[in-house]
Amino acid sequence: MTRRAVLLPGLTWNPHGPTVTIVMKMSLLGASAILAGCTSASNSTPPRSSATISGTLIAIGGPQPGSPRPLPGEVTAKGTGQIYTSTVGSNGVYSINVPPGTYNLTGRSPLYQSGTAECQTLAPVEATSASTLIVNVGCEEK
Q1: Domain 30-62+69-141, CATH 2.60.40.1120 — does that match?
Q2: Which of 3, 5, 42, 53 is 20 to 30 Å from 17 at the Cα level?
Q3: What does each of the 142 residues of the chain score in pLDDT, given as a tens digit?
Q4: Burial of 67 (0-12, 13-18, 19+ CB in 10 A)
Q5: What are the residue ranges of helices labelled H in the chain?
Q6: What single DSSP character describes residue 113?
């Protein structure tokens, strides 16, 4: 079953497909590791009743034309006492298997603020048993 996320203020709906773009607020952090661009997930094995959160890590805005662009890096889903991470390749695509619950998604890319900035979600994501959520994690460029 594919679920669509609930739209909240600050979220953009893509009428051409079941994709929700969450624009991230940027906060600068200390030095961080720059990740190689390969596609693999480093999740612990979720239970059979797992959900999947997938989408694309993208840069949004910036100089004209400001079209969304895929970013390599890492996407992390943080739940109560649990952290699941997916390494993102140059196509920006990620997929994370998680047990049902509420997760805050964050993204980081060596091509965005040299990998020192972490993007924070505006709203958490609710994953239910056997569901697939499609959520683009966007880093807003000015």
Answers
A1: yes
A2: 42
A3: 444 443 333 334 343 344 444 443 333 332 222 223 333 344 455 455 799 999 999 998 887 877 889 999 999 999 988 999 999 999 999 999 999 999 999 999 999 989 888 887 779 999 999 999 999 999 988 7
A4: exposed
A5: none
A6: G
pTM above 0.85, yes or no: no
Domain residue extents for the chain: 30-62+69-141
Query: Tokens for 38?
Result: 């390969």
Instruction: Give bridge partners of residue 11 from the DSSP assignment.
Output: 22
Residues 103 and 94 sit within 8 Å (Cβ to Cβ) = no
- Rounded to 5 degrees, φ, ψ at 129 are -55, 130
Would you tell me how many other CB atoms lie within 10 Å of the CB of residue 70? 18
User: Which residue type does 77 have?
Assistant: A
Question: Contact, 10 vs 23, CB < 8 A?
Answer: yes
